[in-house]
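Re: [ENG-882] Designed sequences occasionally contain unexpected residues at chain ends

Forwarding the minimal case from QA. Structure tokens:
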């Protein structure tokens, strides 16, 4: 089974995903990085040159390829779950973890990334705070519906996020084991 990390931008999917994969001895895949590698462009360049639709199509192709993986940790781009094809191909063999954070924390992290040269293209053309609030309000019900586990990353560091995911996985496996024992009787 794959561990699928989803959530809005700057909630820690990549950093926590890397740490989690290291701890589990599993491969780590970041769909945004894979798209950038295949297209030999950054996401802002892809969006500026070809538009969001071209990025989403490339993202779906990457996810289709990754859906054949097993025992991996996969960090999805924030909007990847908007395409039902992506969800269907990953859900068959995936445990979905929603990394959430408060909007103020997300915008502060995005500003820090932008100061470091890692600007993210706008999704709506609105100012950062307005865009974050609007897009999160739209996506959160979907993240909630898909999530097998939710970890709030607002106030915890990467190591603690990875630990929270591991604890949630252990708990889920223990419950499944108990349910299986109950059926055997």
């Amino acid at each position: 089974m794959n561990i699928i990390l989803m959530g809005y931008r700057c909630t820690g999917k990549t950093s926590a995903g890397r740490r989690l994969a290291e701890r589990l001895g599993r491969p780590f895949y970041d769909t945004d990085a894979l798209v950038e590698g295949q297209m030999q462009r950054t996401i802002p360049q892809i969006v500026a040159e070809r538009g969001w639709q071209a990025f989403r199509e490339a993202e779906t192709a990457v996810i289709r390829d990754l859906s054949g993986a097993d025992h991996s940790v996969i960090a999805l781009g924030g909007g990847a779950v908007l395409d039902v094809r992506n969800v269907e191909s990953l859900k068959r063999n995936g445990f979905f973890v929603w990394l959430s954070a408060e909007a103020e924390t997300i915008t502060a992290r995005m500003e820090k990334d932008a100061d470091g040269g890692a600007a993210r293209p706008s999704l709506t053309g609105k100012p950062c705070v307005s865009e974050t609030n609007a897009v999160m309000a739209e996506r959160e019900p979907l993240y909630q519906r898909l999530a097998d586990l939710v970890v709030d990353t607002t106030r915890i560091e990467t190591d603690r996020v990875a630990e929270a995911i591991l604890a949630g996985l252990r708990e889920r496996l223990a419950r499944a084991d108990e349910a299986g024992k109950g059926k055997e009787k």
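QA comment: On inspection the terminal residues look reasonable. DSSP finds eight helices and five strands in the chain. Proposing we downgrade this to a documentation issue.
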